[in-house]
Design a protein that fits this description.
single chain; about 290 residues; alpha/beta; Rossmann fold; eight-stranded mixed beta sheet; about 15% strand
Length: about 290
């Protein structure tokens, strides 16, 4: 098998995504990003929950953990704390990350670990036959919401910016070069980076198609002030056309690893530490 990327699987594998699914484009974008950053599979960990997007770690040659529905972020945080030298990317769909995982999303922003949340945003649950995800617009009809969605859609960018997330961006899988640059900056950011990756679901979402995204997205201006939280929040509320780019970024917010002393000189992964059993027994005895 001819491997063009260090992150290509070394064996032929059946991929369970529908032909034309935006997940294929995101897979290419992700592998290209990791290659261009000069990373190796041994330096990278992908963590996911449940769903079509959450199958991504199974199709990329890197460390991986596939966990419970909505639980990618706490697992990814644990991976980062256990080995701060890894680049850790939590990758799941809008349902897994923002529905079942909504509470974890909020509190991961507060903790600010040095990981990336790559959200596949196609506005439906693609694995379980197309019911509306939290980002589905009001009025959207699905096989479950036959009269149309009546809930207010969740805006992941506005939510993240309102909580002072240290990196917030939106990209579209149909623009590979642009998305690669966004993702490179997210992975290189020293803190929690949120990337809302727009993608079509060719099977269950007949509204937000490739052509719809081309006609209803545009790039933020180069002079957009990424350090201005108020302006970033205002731009995140635009819905007539969806802006793409980095909305908000700041590096003054301490990371979770810094609070725990894991960014100090000489910091190393847990598996390289030796255990002082006498000290451990002494500490445990205090609770007996």
């Amino acid at each position: 098998m001819d491997r063009k990327s260090a992150f290509d699987l070394p064996i032929e594998t059946d991929i369970a995504w529908c032909p034309g699914c935006g997940d294929f484009a995101i897979q290419k974008i992700l592998k290209r990003t990791l290659d261009e950053l000069g990373l190796l599979p041994t330096q990278t960990a992908l963590v996911s929950g449940i769903g079509q997007a959450a199958k991504m770690p199974q199709y990329v040659w890197a460390h991986m953990f596939n966990g419970l529905h909505g639980r990618s972020l706490p697992a990814a945080t644990a991976v980062k704390l256990a080995n701060p030298t890894l680049k850790v990317i939590a990758v799941s769909g809008d349902g897994c990350m923002l529905g079942e995982g909504g509470n974890h999303f909020i509190h991961t922003i507060r903790r600010n670990p040095g990981i990336v949340a790559l959200i596949h945003d196609n506005r439906v649950y693609g694995l379980t036959k197309g019911q509306a995800a939290p980002t589905a617009p009001t009025g959207m009809k699905t096989k479950l919401q036959v009269e149309g969605v009546f809930n207010e859609p969740l805006n992941p960018l506005a939510l993240a910016i309102s909580l002072n997330a240290s990196f917030v961006a939106r990209a579209y899988c149909g623009e590979a070069d642009f998305s690669v640059e966004i993702l490179k900056q997210a992975i290189s950011h020293p803190g929690f980076a949120v990337v809302d990756m727009l993608q079509p679901c060719v099977t269950y979402n007949k509204i937000n198609t490739y052509s719809w995204f081309r006609e209803n997205t545009y790039h933020l201006e180069p002079e957009h002030p990424v350090d201005n939280q108020t302006e970033a929040f205002r731009r995140s509320l635009e819905t007539e056309k969806l802006p793409l780019g980095i909305f908000y970024r700041h590096t003054s917010k301490p990371t979770l690893e810094a609070h725990l002393g894991l960014t100090q000189q000489g910091s190393k992964p847990l598996y390289e530490h030796t255990v002082n059993h006498d000290a451990l027994r002494e500490r445990a005895a205090r609770f007996c």
